[in-house]
Automatic annotation (TrEMBL):
Residues 37-102 form the Cupin type-2 domain. InterPro entries: Cupin_2, RmlC-like_jellyroll, RmlC_Cupin_sf. This is Cupin domain-containing protein. It comes from Paenibacillus whitsoniae. Signal peptide: none annotated. It comes from the Bacteria.
């Protein structure tokens, strides 16, 4: 089992080319929101997805963050914000030649932090494929359930049913507990 400094506020994902710093955690805001600062390398991006229980508000700080949302492309300039509503299919990316920096406010916080810590930790430990998808289907199910995120193109009830069942099995087998102990157990708490 890998051991990580779970108290770090900054985590990295070399596959999508970003560094995420937790500025405000769920524990610090009593679950109201989480605020992260993202540094995204040129060409960095995530895949199209949607959330069923929280909104995301993107605010550009340095450079422009491109956000595809519900069929349109928004170029968020420094000082501007773009809110992604619950259920809106979206992704962010940096098509430019230099790194960019932006903030994302997740409201309400839900399980965003543990989901991201587990996903990025598995990538860092080489336990995913080249696209960042966990090789272990139970670990993938835990990430899907925690993130309350879904992929367009496949009916949500199929994704929710499949990953919901696998999540219950993974929890019963102790996989969720192991992932929390490895990647999340000591996440930042209020001082």
């Amino acid at each position: 089992m890998e051991h990580h400094n779970r108290n770090n506020r900054t985590i990295e994902n070399p596959i999508i080319g970003d560094r995420v710093t937790f500025l405000s955690t769920s524990m610090e805001t009593d679950g109201d929101h989480e605020l992260v600062e993202v540094e995204l390398n040129p060409g960095g991006k995530n895949d199209l997805h949607y959330h069923i229980s929280y909104c995301e508000e993107f605010e550009a700080l340095e450079g422009s963050v491109y956000v595809d949302c519900s069929g349109g492309t928004y170029i968020v300039q420094p000082g501007e914000k773009k809110t992604i509503q619950i259920g809106s299919v979206h992704r962010f990316y940096n098509p430019g030649p230099t790194p960019i920096k932006f903030r994302v406010k997740i409201s309400p916080a839900r399980s965003f932090e543990p989901m991201l810590r587990i996903a990025y930790g598995l990538i860092q430990d080489g336990k995913t494929n080249s696209k960042g998808i966990p090789r272990n289907i139970f670990e993938l199910a835990i990430i899907f359930q925690l993130g309350e995120s879904y992929l367009p193109g496949l009916p949500r009830y199929i994704q929710k049913g499949l990953f919901g069942c696998l999540y219950l099995i993974a929890t019963g087998l102790g996989i969720k507990k192991r992932l929390y102990q490895t990647y999340c157990m000591d996440t930042i708490s209020p001082s």
